[in-house]
Amino acid sequence: MEMMAKYYLTKEGLKKLQEEYEKLRQEREKKMAEVPPMVDLHGPDSEYLTIHEELSMIEAKMEELEEVLQNVELIKLPPKHKRNEVHPGAIVEVEIEGRKETFKLVGSLEADPLSGKISFDSPVGRALLGKRKGETVYIEKCKAVYKIKKIIYE
Fold this sequence. Notes:
Layout: E1 7-9, H1 11-34, H2 46-70, E2 72-74, E3 91-96, E4 99-106, E5 117-119, H3 123-128, E6 136-139, E7 144-152
Parallel strand pairs: 1-2, 4-5
Antiparallel strand pairs: 3-4, 3-7, 6-7
Helix pairs in contact: 1-2
């Protein structure tokens, strides 16, 4: 039996994927309505081919999203007694060489470093998991020391 991949998402990430799926479903319906009725499949009907290609791309993306949505594991708040440690879903404020940075640990599908979301499976994320406020971690890949200043759960 083949193991299905688990996709870790926050509630916000799940909602965003569900909305994207619904938008694609509506777009597919709209495109289906645009397919010309009588088409010579052997003739050079570029309108038909264009719509067919667009539909194929939409359906491929929908299949990808269906795979994710069927194998989602929601990132939940840890129990109260563990909220003083870094776990997936935590917002962590760190100090790196005198400057402060704040980021949220999310699953790899939601990771977006530019908006402050890093994967808990990234080198930084893995190094911080289980650590507590005040602890320092040397992250080899970054060649930097991260000191945990705050851990917040929403």
